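Sharing in case it's useful to others searching the archive later.

Someone asked me privately for the predicted structure of SIMPL domain-containing protein, so I'm posting the question and my answer publicly. Question first, with the sequence:
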Amino acid sequence: MSVMQFRHFAAGLALGLLTLGAVQPALADDDDRRIAITGRAEVTAVPDRADVTLGVDAEGKTAAAAMAENARRMSAVFEALTAAGVAREKIGTTGLSLQPVYDYPHQQGRNGPPRLVGFRASNMVQVRVTEMDRVGKVLDATVEAGANTIHGISFSVSEADRLLDTARAEAVADARRKAEIYAKAAGVRLGKVLRIDEARGGGPQPVYRAMAMASEAMRADTPVAPGEQTLGISVSVLWELED
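And my answer, the predicted structure tokens:
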């Protein structure tokens, strides 16, 4: 057999094998006997903690004067927080800065380089309030004492882990319910669980609602509505399938 004839023979043999493989049924592997289903569950709860970030910005002709004025106002804020019933361990410094303040003539239609006119000192603290009906009162007290910056307020649930455990069990039950529907429709049964993967649903989601005011005195405070938080869990469960 010549080299050319051998090449034609080999090419024909390969084509025949490919054709034979195309018409033969594929052998079942382990993945054909498994089913993966995602289950979801949510629980809602009313927040019982509020974290408020607030502080004092103060300016002075010199850096020392700005820091001294800031310290005076911040001390008054700490005293107001204590008087409002906030324990010292619930107050933590989150930021302290000192920056120069410049006058920019071009912003006022004048010529000339920037000119140093003073300094600004900033002191920020995070305050945790665990009595939700006192959040507005605490805010008002700090502002009256000298706080002139409020960077935000966030609410949280102290028993979030316990509530999420309930959601985990419900999410697995949801996955099993759906998996049993598919298995029954396919004429098979669920076997043992092979794997469970959890995914948090992006963190607590607030669901806002109006906060009831119990008295005229409460209406005088800054209104704050903690609403409800939705805690979500998703789980992916992998089962074996049995005949």
